[in-house]
Amino acid sequence: MPGVGAHGSLAYPAGVRKPIPRIHRHILLANLVAQVGIIVSGGLVRLTGSGLGCPTWPECVPGSYVPVREQAEGIHKVIEFGNRTLTSVLTVVAILAVWAVWKWTPVRRLKIAAVTVLVGVAVQALLGGVTVLTELHPVTVAAHFLVSASLVAAAAYLWFVRDEGDGEPRLLVHDLVRRVAWLTCGVAAVVLTLGTVVTGSGPHSGDADAPARFGFDPRTISWLHADAVMLFIGLVVAVWLATRLSSAPRSVGTAWRTVLLVTLAQGLIGYVQYLTDLPEVLVLTHMFGAAALVVALTNGIVSLREIAQD
How many structural domains are present in the chain? Predict the structure, then answer.
C-alpha cells in the first residue's frame, strides 16, 4: 500500500508501479485508430484518383503548401491535401504515445513499439513524397501501404500489452503452436504484399488521368493472391483448433477465433469485389479489413503468452 510523502502526496514502495491514469489508454487507443484511419484515408485518395491532387511535395503546388483556387485538380486537391494533413495528426498522437509510455509504463518493449510508430510516421511522410514525385509508381504506392500495415501492428501491440510488466513472458500454448502462429504471420505478410500487387494491377491506380500499374495480368495475380489466402486460412484454423484442444486459457482461443472471422469476412469481400469488377466501396472496405486483420493477428500473437504486471 502507498504511504504519504513529505508533501502529502502518495509515495509508492520501490518496485510498485503507480496507478496508470485513464488518459494513458485513451492516447494509445487514439494511436491505433489513427494508424488504421490513415490506411482508409489513403485508400480514399487512391479510389478517387486523387493521388496527384497535390502534384508536388512537400508543397501542394509550387509556391504553396496548401491547395490554391487556380489548381486544375479540382476536388482531388482537397482529398489529397486532407490526407497529407492527417499525417500531422498522426505525428502528434505518436508523440503523445511515446510520452505516455515513458511516463506511465516505462517497459523496454513498449518504448520500442512507441518509438517505432513515431519513426514510422516520419518514414511514411517521406515515402509519401517519393510516391508523388515518382507519379504514383506502383512499387512506392505498395510500399506506402505495407509500411502503414506495419505501423498498425506496432500500434496494436502497444495497445494490447499496455498493462504488462517488465517480467519474462510465460508461454500459454505448446511451443509448436507458437511457431505455427508466427508462420501464419509470415504468410499474412505475403498475402498483404500480393494484395498490393493485385490493386496495382487493377483499375484503381491512384490517378484518374495518368494511371500507373504493374502491368501484370489482373486475373492471374488475383488468383495467386487467393491461393495465398487459402493457405493463410488453413494455418489460422490450425492455430485456432490447437488453442481450443489444448489447456490454453479461453481468451487465447477467442483471440484466434476473431482472426478467423476477420479472415473469412475479408475473403468474402475479396471474392465479391472481384466478381463485381472492383467497386470502390468494396475495395475501400477490403482495405479497412486488411487493417482489422493486422490488429486481430497482433492480438492473436500477444494472447499466446502472458507477463505479470509489476
Answer: 1
Please give the model's pTM, rounded to 2 decimal places: 0.88
Query: Minimum mean pLDDT among 5-19, 26-40, 50-64, 244-258: which range?
Result: 5-19
How does residue 7 score in pLDDT terms, banded at 50, 70 and 90?
very low
User: What's the pLDDT tens digit per position in 97-125?
Assistant: 999 999 988 888 999 999 999 999 999 98
Indicate whether 4 belongs to any domain.
no
Decide if 241 is inside a domain.
Answer: yes
Residue 76 lies in a domain: yes
- Which amino acid is it at 127? L
Sign of the four-CA dihedral 219, 289, 193, 129: positive
Domain with 216, as residue range(s), is 21-306
Mean pLDDT of the chain: 86
Model pLDDT, residue 6: 41
Q: What is the mean pLDDT of residues 116-141?
A: 89
What is the three-state SS of the chain? CCEECCCCCEECCCCCCCCCCHHHHHHHHHHHHHHHHHHHHHHHHHHCCECCCCCCCCCCECCECCCCCCCCCCHHHHHHHHHHHHHHHHHHHHHHHHHHHHHHCCCHHHHHHHHHHHHHHHHHHHHHHHHHHCCCCHHHHHHHHHHHHHHHHHHHHHHHCCCCCCCCCEECCCHHHHHHHHHHHHHHHHHHHHHHHHHHCCCCCCECCCCCCCCCCHHHHHHHHHHHHHHHHHHHHHHHHHHHHCCCCHHHHHHHHHHHHHHHHHHHHHHHHHHCCCCHHHHHHHHHHHHHHHHHHHHHHHHCEECCCC
Q: How far apart are CA 275 and CA 110, in angstroms?
A: 43
**Per-residue model confidence as pLDDT tens digits over 149-187:** 999 999 999 999 998 887 788 899 999 999 999 999 999
Query: Letter for the amino acid at 146?
Result: L
The answer to whether position 50 is within a domain reads yes
